[in-house]
Amino acid sequence: MCAKQSTVYRGNTPLKEEESVNFREIFLKYSFHWPLFILVFVAAMSIAYVYFKVKKPGYQVTATLQIQDETKDKAPGADKAALSELDLVNTGKIVENEMEVLRSFTLVSKVVYDLQLWVKYTRTTKLVKQEDLYKKTPVHFKLIQKKGDLGGQKFDIVIKNANTFLLKRSNGKYTQFNFKDVLDNEFGLWQLEPTKDINNYIGSTITVSLGNPYSVVDATQKGLSIALVDKQASTISLTVSDNLPERGMDILNDLISRYDEAEVQMKNKITQSTLDFINERLKTLTGELSHAEGQVQSYESSRGVTDLDDQSKSYVQSTMENDKNLNEVNVELQVVDGIEKYANTPGSTNVPSTLGINDSGLSTLIEKLSELQIERDRMLATMPETNPMLDPVNRQISSTRSAIMQNVRNIKSSLLAQKRQLESYDKKYQSTIRNVPVQQRDLIGLKRDQTLKDNLYTYLLQKREELSVSYASILSNARLVDPAYVLPVKPLNKYAPFLVAIAFAFLFPVGLIYGRNSIKNAITHSREISQGTDVPVLCELSFEKTKTPIVVHDRGKFAIAEEFRTLRTKLHYLHGKTDKGRVTLITSSISSEGKSFISTNLAVAIAASGRKTVILEMDLRKPRVSEIFGIEDKQPGISNYLNGEVSETKIIQKSATYPNLDIIGSGDFYPNPSELLEQDRLSTLITYLRSNYDDIVIDTPPVNIVTDAFIIAKQADITLYCVRQGHTSKMLLPFIKNINEEEHFNKLNIVFNGIEKGRFGYNGYTYGYGDYITDKQTKKKYSNSIFNNFFKRF
């Protein structure tokens, strides 16, 4: 039904209708697609149901460990050098470094292989539900020789009895094997060994899934969370999440055990290296001390020297003290030389002692170098030396050696300076002692050498005993506070998946419909036309799905017939007092907007009112009017007339079906239709038709594609511009506004075509037509049933 454009007034000034939120339109827009909402709802609820059935609750497993941190556990006022002197092996750690060690690839890979986490055993108990058989599997997979990638390998077996099983082949057939038979697959040689639970699974189908061990290690590392319990303390918490709490506890407990084992192994190696150094030094000192004692005894016996005066004692004591300090410096220089030699010898596993070197940084670097060397030796056991995976370790070893050499140079420089000073003191004492009798001086030198060697020998014996005790009772720097335990978890909320499904079933269709309409960006409401073009909407025509192109003549079957009659009446008022020779031009922006459909039905509607009418098929490129009315292609038409081949009377065809209606077809196709239309013969033709017909209806090509309509527009009194709902783009509105402002067409009005009730939340002005339709089937179609246009509702 056609309607006047509504206008809002403020005072005496007319304003455009302001756009506001119309919730009824929004509801109609989305409710039109109710089958889509139902389909998504059913699918989402089905997925939620399956998820609820197969989802297993996750468990969080936690363990607590305390690390001896030298930066946090040091007592106020304690001397670091003194602590190092008392404990040569159990040096403190930095807790952040130990956290990285705990999550290192080396330790985690040991856990993965210890627990065989790269192999998974499952059994199907119910539909789409798998039971994980961790720690209760009836078989144990053993890889004898690896040939290919293990990742993604999976096979099914059926436990026949305690001695045999059936293996499912790729062709679906089963082959019987005995347990412990060696099988050859593309990934390697392997066998299955029965466990103590084998009798509980007779007749069961077991799925054995293999994963890439490196990928499993990486996944385990990512799932392992290590954090400080308190920034002021050295206690850390280890957390892992798993569907099976037993597996999570085993992972943490084995990781802690492997960490302690590595710590003890490293300390034992360092302690043994220190003991070896002390033993070698004691062997040398034993001979030197015996020789010094023999010299003193021989000298006193041969010369009868038994006592020295007070002055000699004073000088001797000073000299001995100075020589003692000098000897200690020499010992420290020997230790430094040993460390320097170790740092300059690549691949050396003989870790030097840091005995007497009160530098915790150097001790830490030596310990780190030893750890890196051990790690490199472990990696070399399974890969060639040229493997790129060794590069990070080699770089760390090189940087650590450089740091050790820098520290050694600094310490050695300090010791050499101290040695030079002590030697200068010694020269001073020696010059003083020259005044003492030669015998006394010789005896003092002999006794001094004896005393120094005796003191050094006693010191080394004491340290060897301390290290022997430590070696027998070496403990890790980590203390287990809480072994792995399972934290209580909230049970799975059985309503949560369904609530999410309901929300998804609403939001997804809304987003899909909104996005689809936004991408298409088509005109859906007459208000958009009025506001975007300032051109009045003369009439709205409903969408009709029919094989009959002419719908006007059957009043009882098509409601659109009444809409065309209303459009006929509106044209009468637009033409005003003109009663004969009225020319109405019909065009559009693009194709498929219903231009030819409106032209033909409007012409039939006007002719049905008793007015002599002619319709001109002036879309010379893609003619449709002749096809609709059944005009033969051989008949001459407008192109033939414009080309001067025939006269006006030769191109007019009488309609056998519709009284008072004549048709002028497009005629033969010529490659220059625009040039034909520019000729004066077009004006002559229109003048002739005005004098012989009451109404002339002209069907023209789309104006946004070719210029033909602009040429013909000069001959028309009124222009009807077709806009189709859901098809014409909003981007064309400025174009329509521009041609209206530039007055390319006379009395430009818009016909809003193809209104689909409710599809875009807009019913137009066709509501209620079903009450005036006599055909029952058609009336049912217009009864606003939610099942109308069912497939378009998706």
Task: Describe this entry's structure for a reader.
With 794 residues, the protein is an alpha/beta fold. The protein folds into four domains: 20-55 and 493-518, no CATH class; 59-258, no CATH class; 273-482, no CATH class; 522-788, P-loop containing nucleotide triphosphate hydrolases (Rossmann fold, 3-Layer(aba) Sandwich). Helix content is 47%, strand content 17%. It is built from 23 helices and 23 strands. An eight-stranded mixed beta sheet has the order 16-23-22-17-21-18-20-19, sandwiched between helices. A six-stranded antiparallel beta sheet has the order 5-4-12-7-8-9, with no helix packed on it. A hairpin with a 6-residue loop joins strand 13 (224-228) and strand 14 (235-242). Helix 5 crosses helix 7. The model is unreliable at 3-19, 73-92, 766-772 and 779-784 (pLDDT under 50).
Summed up, what is this model?
This protein is α/β, with parallel strands linked by helices.
